[in-house]
Amino acid sequence: MTTQEQYIERLKEIVRAKHGREICTAEDCALLAEALREATKQSIDPRALELMFLAKRRSFAPRPSVLTALAMYVGYGSWSDFCSSRDVLPADDTDIIPVKRRWGVIILTIAAIVIVLSAILYLLLGDNTAVSNTENIALQRLYTDVDERWRAIATEECNDLRSAGDMSASEVNSIITERIITLGDSIATDIEATATQRGMAIDEATLSEYADKIAERCESIYQCALN
Description:
Elements: H1 3-19, H2 26-40, H3 46-53, H4 64-73, H5 79-84, H6 99-124, H7 128-162, H8 169-197, H9 204-225
Helix pairs in contact: 1-4, 2-3, 2-4, 7-8, 7-9, 8-9
């Protein structure tokens, strides 16, 4: 487990202690999201918390906004403040390789990676273009599917709000404004979850780019419902 993962595990331990209960179900994550909103004024999608607290794979990296909100919840200014605080030790600290041995391990690991990558490139050089095209098609399909899903969600929500006769214009505007604020994080979480379901890897830059584009499309739909 890397130091980053150790700090994330430590943060989860402190959050559980602060929250006063285990976080084992989607309902627990929804309650935690509400506690975060009340304590930090940060709106975090419960699904992002589900991926962090309930997902079995340890390689999942929560978004910085989620980590910062949780760090603020337990009394720190940001995620970086939490990691740099002297009173916080990463979880499983005894598993960390001693510094003198760490460099040797790092050098050997890098050398092994270079050798393996060189062999793979040599063997698959002729197939690189086909592999790249296949990955691009899969990513584009992922983007299209999530984009269609969220535009449908936005359209349905706007139609429901327009037809809600028991709500004032200010109430409708308040709901839509709050929805727009959390839109980017919610869509990014959905993209990452969909990619995981399809066995795909998506880097942070591509994730942010896709989420921003889809959020912009959905925001235009919500704007039409604002009075």
